Amino acid sequence: MVDITAQGILFDMDGTLVNTIACVERGWTDLANEHSIDAQALLNTVHGHPTYDVLRAWFPPHMHTRQYAQSFEHKLMHDTRGVFAVPGALRVLSMLKDSEWAIVTAATDDLALTRMQQIGLDAPKKLVADTSVKKGKPDPEGYEVGARLLGISPKDAVVFEDSVNGVVAGCAAGCTVVGVLTSTHEDKLREAGAKYVIKDFTQVQISHANGLVITLDI
Q: What is the reported pLDDT for 197?
């Protein structure tokens, strides 16, 4: 068992609270095949990156628009095949006050809110989405903004992340980062800076004592 003391928790969404791996990878694979792009190479890089950034890095110039990114995300958000809450995630969120947690995601507001509804979770009170920041992960801006929304220093926040980019962002912000094993191998999460790694939130307990005590069953 490991106890971590903190004043707040910052959660990534895709792959951390909501397992959308099958849906996201299916959508990107189809798009890659349409444009004769190596789908596996693309999938090795998409997790944790904003859709717009992926389009600019991999696809033809006519797709480098916010409008195209939004249309692609709109298509993804209505594909619910293989979308489910990461085990234990809803239980952990139910243990937290609204003022103690926020979501920091590379997704747009619409996609994030839709995914939350699809797993039976009300809209989070504090959300940092793609349009909330100038630079996406692995830049630390999102987690810095998330900490400010909670009224705490990043060093007093714990981040839960499933992607290398997200782990790098959380560490760069000064947070304690816990990796979640959904989309990325444990070794890569640790190499990126994750201090701890869990399979899912069934290994997490929350208690309150001068803030939060996050107990990891590892």
A: 98
16-61 pLDDT, tens digit per residue, is 999 988 888 999 999 999 999 999 999 988 877 788 999 999 999 9
Instruction: Please give the C-alpha separations between residue 209 and each of 98, 167, 206, in angstroms, as whole numbers.
Output: 17, 27, 10
Residues 6+ apart with CB under 8 A from 111: 73, 76, 77
Integer Cα distance of 187 and 184 in angstroms: 8
Q: Which residues of 114-142 are buried (b: 16+ CB within 10 A; e: fewer)?
A: bbbebbebeebebbbbbebbeebbbbbbb
Question: Which has the closest alpha carbon to 188: 172, 206, 166, 209?
Answer: 166
Helix then strand count (H, E) for the chain reads 9, 11
Q: Take residue 188 and report the two structure tokens written for it.
A: 């890569």
Kindly indicate the confidence band of residue 87, based on its pLDDT and cuts at 50, 70 and 90.
very high
What is the overall mean pLDDT for the chain?
Answer: 93
Q: Which residues are catalytic?
A: 12, 14
Q: What is the pLDDT of residue 42?
A: 95
Buried b (16+ CB within 10 A) or exposed e, 30-60: ebbeeeeeebeebbebbbbbbbbbbbeebbe
Q: Is the pLDDT of residue 106 over 90?
A: no
